[in-house]
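Q: What does the assembled structure look like for these inputs?
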Amino acid sequence: MSTASTGKSLAFTAGDGYHDDPPLVAGNLSFHEVTDLVALHTEKKTPMAWYGAFSIANIGLMILLLSVAYLFWNGVGVWGLNNPVGWGYAIVNFVFWVGIGHAGTLISAILYLFRQKWRTAINRSAEAMTIFAVICALLFPTIHVGRVWAIYWSLPIPNQMEMWPQFKSPLLWDVFAVSVYFTVSLVFWYVGLVPDLATLRDRTPLTKKLRQKVLGFFALGWNGANRHWRNYEKAYLLLAALATPLVLSVHSVVSFDFAVSIIPGWHTTIFPPYFVAGAIFSGFGMVMTLMVIARKVYHMENIITINHLEKMNIIILLTGTMVGFAYITEFFIAWYSGSPYEQYAFINRATGPYAWAYWTMMSCNLLFPQFFWFKKLRRNVAFMFVVSIFVNIGMWFERFVIVVTSLHRDYLPSAWDYYTPTAIDVLTLIGSFGLFFTLFLIFLRFLPMVALAEVKMVMPQSDPHFYEGHGDGHGAAHDLSAGKPESDRGKS
Amino acid sequence: MIELPVIDAASNEEPSRPRFWRSLHHRNDDPEFRKVAAHEFLPGASEGPGGASRRQFLQLMGASMALAGLTACRRPVQHIMPFAHKPEEMIPGVPMQYATSMPFRGALRGLLVESTDGRPTKIEGNPEHPESRGTTSVFEQASILNLYDPDRSQHVLRDGDEADWQRFVDFCRSFVADAGTKRVAVLMEATSSMTVAGLRRAMASTFGALRWATYDADPAAQGMRQAFGRAVRPRYDFARARTIVSLDADFLGPADRDMIHNTRSFSEGRRLENGAMSRLYVVESGFSITGGMADNRLRLRSSEIPAFAAAIAARLGVNVGEAGAAFADHPYVVEIVNDLRQSANTGVLLAGETQPPEVHALCAAVNSRLGSVGRTMTLFDTGASDDLSLNNLVGEMRGGNVDALLIIGCNPVYDAPADLDFAGALSNVAETIHLGPHVDETAAACRWHLPRAHYLEAWGDGRAYDGTMAVIQPLIAPLYDDVHSEIEVLNTLATGLDTPGYDLVRDHWRSVLRGDFEKAWRRVLHDGFLPESAYAAVRIPARAPAAYAAPAIGADDLEVVFRLDPKVLDGSFANNAWMQELPDPTTKITWDNVAMMSPATAERLGVTVRLENGKHFVDRIRVSLGGNSVELPVWIQPGYADNSIGVTLGYGRAIVSQRPERHTNFFDLDDHTDIYGHGAVATGVGVNVASLRTTAAFHVAAGAQVSKSDGDYMIATTQDHGALPEEMEQVRKRHVFRMATVEEYRANPAFVREGDPEPIREPWEEYPTLWEKNHPTKQDAYKDNPYYKNQWAMVIDLHTCTGCNACVIACQAENNIQVVGKEEVANGREMQWIRLDRYFTSETDSVEEPQMVLQPVPCMHCENAPCESVCPVAATVHSPDGTNQMIYNRCIGTRYCANNCPYKVRRFNFYNWTKTLPVQVQMTQNPNVTVRSRGVMEKCSYCIQRVREVNKRAKLEDRPIRDGEVLTACQQACPAQAITFGDLNDPNSKVVQVRASERRYEMLAELNVKPRTSYLGRVTNPNPRLSAEA
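A:
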C-alpha cells in the first residue's frame, strides 16, 4: 500500500487503496448507531408486516410439506417424470438452490481472503441465505428417490449387509460435497455470529431472562477480550481458507452428476467452471433480490450502500458473461466435435420443443446483465432488482435446460419423449421458496442481519488514526462528503 | 374337533318321567329359556364381556397356529393335501411342463405349459410339435392372462339372474325330453375339435332339426372352394418360394391363422447363406408388418386390389376379361409378372382376408398356372362340411324356425354385420344359450349365460393348421365352479346328462387311437399331439374363375377396411391387459383403436394428429356407412394408401365385471393407477367399428361418408417419433438400424461396419506393461474371466425379425412385468422390457412412401455399462457371467442409471403397480422372478432366473452347460428365430458362430460401452427396376 504510513486513508479506502473509494458505511454513523440500527430489529416488538410476510412464507412451507407427503404416499409418479426424462424439477431445483447457496460463502470466505472489505455489509445475510438455500437443496435429492425410506443407503454407514455406497457414483460425491459444504458454511456463519450474539446479549434488559440465557449460551461467553478477538480472527481466517475450496468444489461436484454421464448435452468438460460461474451468478442474483428489499424495509441504506450494490452488479455482469460464454462455447464444441448426437443435442436445445426454455435462459442470463455496463443502470436500485429477478429465473431455466432437454432426446430417436411438470412439481418448487423464506424471516427477526463487528472494523472510525486530523473525526467525514482529492486528504 | 357321538346321543334323549321343570319358561320349552339354560352361569359371569372364553381362546389359538402355515401358501385352502402321498414326480417349487394345445381361429397351436405348484404360469411352444417347433405367436403368450382374467364370468346366469350349473343341467334334461320335436341351432366359432364334430353328429340325430353355423367368414376358405371345388386349406412354403406376392395379405401378422409357419418358413427363405433370397412384393392398403418386410411395397386401396390381381392374372394368361384393364401396364404388375414367370413354381401369389373369395380363387388359379400348387403352395384336404351361413341362420331365427340357439365362443351381438340385426333376431328364439368367458354383449342378450372354461381348465381336442391331431389337456381345475367347456355344454344339451369333458374326449379318441388305448392316450398327452395325423395334401389344378369382375371404385372414393386387431384380435383378447398395453406393431398405439389413413387423406379430410407435450392429440371423424355411423379418433400413418381408412375390430367392448369399483381417499392414487379398478379392463377402450359392417361389405366398404367431428382425443403411444423427415435423418445419421440391398451386401458383406468408428486404442495399450503380460484392458471382458465359465451374449437378426410382438409378451409373462394403463403409457411410463423400435426410412425421406423397419431393443448388457458406475448404492452391477444385473432390494430409485443408459431400456416403477393387483392376476406371476415394488428400477435381465436354473442343474450333474440349454423368453417365443443367445466362452456355441457374421454390428458402438447384445444388419432384395423408378 502506498499509503501504509498514512493510516487514515487506509481506513476509508476499501479496495486497492490506489484510488478514491467512498466509505463503506455512509451517513457518518457512530459505532453505537450502527449497533442500534441492526440490533433494534431483533429487539423491538415484532412488526405486523413481519407477521404478514411470515404467514405467506408459512403457507409456502405448508404447500411443501403437503406436496412432499403426497409424494411419499404415492410415489414419484406424482411428478411429470417419464422414461427418458428420469430427472425433472427435483434435480433442477436441487442444482438451482445449491447454486444460490454459493454466494454466501463466496462473499464471506473468498472475498474475505481477497480483502474485499465491502463484503461486510452483506456477508451475514448472504451466509444465512446460503445455509437456507443449501437446506432447500438437500431436500430435493432426498425426496426425489423412489424409495425414500432407504435413502440412508447412500451414506457410508457400517451395516449388517456389509454394503458400502458405490464410490464411483457422482451422486455419492454430491452427498459428501453438499453435506461438507453445508457443515462448513454453518460453522463459519456461527463463528462469525459469536461477537454479535454477545453484543445482543449485552443489550438485553435484565427483565428478559430467557433471551439473556439463550443469547448467553450461543455467545459462548464472549466478552470481547483481546484473547477472544485473536482466537476469533484466527478461527475465522482458517475457516475462510477451508471454505474457499469448497465454494469451487461443491458446484464442480454437482456438475459431475452431468459431466460424468454419457448423455449428449451432459457429457461436457466445461461443466465444472461453467457451473461454478453460474452458481456465483445465481447466488449474487438472489443476494441482490433479498438485499434490495431488506435495506429498504430495515432502513439499512447507510450500511448496504449503493456502492455495495454496484459492486455486486459488477460481479453479476462478470459471471453472467462467463456463463454466456460457456453457452456459446458448448455450441462451438458441439459443432467442432463432429458427433451427430452432440450436434443434435444443441440444435434441439435452441430449436426443439424446449426452445422457449433455452431462449428464456439465454436472455435472462446473457442479455440482461449486459445492461450493467452502464453505470447509471448499475446504480439504479429498481432496475437492478428487476435484473436480479431475471437472473434468478434465468438460472433456474439454465438447470432446466441442462437436465430436461438433454434427457428428453438422447441417442435413440425411438425413445424420445417430452417432459411436462405436474401441479405437484410446481407446488414443490413454490413450497421450497416457502421453506427458504420462512427460515430467512426467522433469521431476520432473531439475529443481526449485518455482521456488526465486521462492519465496525471497516468503518472510518475504527481506524486508530481516525481522530488525529481534526480530532473529532468530522474532518474525515467532511472530507469525504466534500469529495476532496486524495492529495488533500492524504496529507496528515 | 373330535365329535363324541355317544355322549351327544345320550344328552339328546328325552328325559324320563317324572318330569321336573324349573319355571314356566322351562316347561313350555321357551327358546329364550333354552338360550339362558345352555350356559351354566348368566352371560358375562363365565366369559369376558366381549371376548372369547378361555376355552374358546385356546381353541382359536390352536387353530390359528395350525392354519398359520397354510395362509402363506398360494394354493387354494380347501384343496390342501398333506404331501404324505406326494403326487408322482412333483417337487414343490420345481415347475413342471405339460403338453397341451391352444385353439386359435379354428386350428390348434401346440404348446408346452409350465406349471408351478399346480398353477400354470408360462406358455411356450411345443418343440416337438410339427407346427409350433417350440415357438409361439403373441396370442399364445398372452392367453395365460385370459385364464386369470379377473373379469371372467363365474356363474351361470338365467335371464340375467345368478343360477348354477345344476339348473342348466335340469333345463337340458327337460329340453331333451321331447328332442325329436326340437329345432336346435348352434352358432359356433371356427373349431377343429373332433369331439365337437362327434357331438354334432349325435345332436343331429337327437333333435328334430339341427342347424349349425360357423361364425367365421373366411374368404380364403371360400375362395379355395371356388378354385378347387372342395374344402382345402392352403399353406405356402415361403422357404422355397423365390417370388412372393402378397395382395393385402398380412401373412406374417400375428392374426394370421398360419402365422407361425409363415414366419418360420419366410425367414428360412430369406437366409443369405442359402444363396438366392426370396423377393417379397406387398400390395396393400394399410401398413402391416408384412409390408414392413417387403422388398417392394405398393400402397393401393383394398378395393382396387381385385383389379390389380386381375391385371397380374391376365398377363399370366388367366382369362379375367377386362377386370384388370386399369392396371394392365402398371410397372408393379409388369415387374411382378416378370419375377413370377422367372420363379415359375417357386412363385406364389396370395390374397389377404380383406379380399373377397374371388380374389383368393384367382390367386389360386395363378399359382396353379405357375405350377406352384403342390410345390410352393400345399393344399390340405380338410374335408370340412358345409355349414349354414350366418345370413341363413338369422333368416331361420326370424322365421321362428329355431327353438333353441346355442352360441359358443363368438359374440354376434357385438360384431355381426349390422344389416342382420342379430340382437333383434335373437328375440325370436325361445331359448338362447350363450357360452363364453365373459358376461358380454351376447350374454346380456341371451336367456342363458354359461361361463366358458379356458383351454387350460378343460379337456378338448382338435387339429393344427396342417391337421395334426392333439388333445387339449387342462393344467388346473376350473377356477370357478360353474365353468364348463363347449364339449360339456354341447353334450349336456344333446343328452341332458352332465358328463365330464374328460370322458367325452376320451370316448371320442377311442376311435382315433389304434392299439392299446391307455398307452396311446398317454403318449398323445405326453407328446402333445398325435404324430402322422396331418391332413392329406392334395394336388389338384385350380379352375380359372368364371366371370371375374373387379368392383368399381371411383378414384376419390373413400374406402373403410376392417381388419382383425394385431393385439385384441376380434375382441377375444380385449380384456387382456397385456394385449391392451402392447404397442400396435406398426402404429405403436396402446389401449385404443383408430382410423388409420395416409397423410394425404388426412389433409383431404382436414384432420390432424398433434404432438403436444409428449402426448398425441388427434381429431375425431364420423364414419357413416349404410346408415350406421361411428365416431373414432384418427391416426396418420405414413405409407397408407390414399383414400383408404383402416380400422381394427375388437374394441369398444361391454363386458360386465363383478368386481366393485375402487374408491380410495383423494390423496391416494391407487385407484387412478389401477387398471383393474374401474370395471372390466376392456371397458371404455376404443370404439366398436363392427356396427359399420354389412354382409355385403364385410371386410372392405367403399363409398364411406367421412366427416370431421368435434373434440380432441388423446392417444397413448410408446413411440412419439420417427416419421418426420428430420427424424428420419437423425436415425440415418446414428446408424441405429443398418440395412442394405442384396447387391450392396454382395459387393460389401461388411456393409454394417461402414459407419463404425475405429476400435478405440487406449493410450496404455501402445506400451507393454511391465508387470502383466496380459493386460485385461486389451481384451473383451469375457476372455479374462477364468473363474466363471459362461459369458452370455445375444444377437438379434434384423434380417428375419418381422416385429410380430411375440417376444414382448413372452418377456412380460416370464418376468412379471406390470401393466400401467393408458394414462401412464401416455406419460411415458410403460414397463415392457423389450421394445420394438419402429422407424420409417426412404431414400427421399418421403412421408408418403416410406419403408418401415422394426428393431427389438432389450437391455444391451454392456461390458462397460454406463448405468453401473453412476448408481450411488451399487444396485446395478455386473455378474461374473457377464450380465448387467439389477438388484431390486438394493435400489433406492435415483433413476440415474436410466438417465445414463444410451439405449433407454431401463424401466422405473413410478407407482406401486402391484398393490392393487386382483388375486387372480397375482396367480400369473412367475414365482422365480421378484415382483418389483414401487420406486425401483428394472430392466431386461437376459432371463437370469433361467440361466441360474440351468446353472444349478448343470452343477448337480457336474457337466458344463450345453449350448441352447438356456433360452431366454424372447428367444424361445420368436417365430422367426431371430434371437440367438448363448455362451461366448463356448467356441462351438451358436451365438459365437452368429457373432462371426459380417452383418453383425453393435448399436452405438462408438460409445465404447461394448454391448453384449448385438444386431445382424438387414438385407433387402428390391427389384432394381422398381427401385430406380421410385
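Residues 1-15, 69-80 of chain B have pLDDT under 50 and may be disordered.
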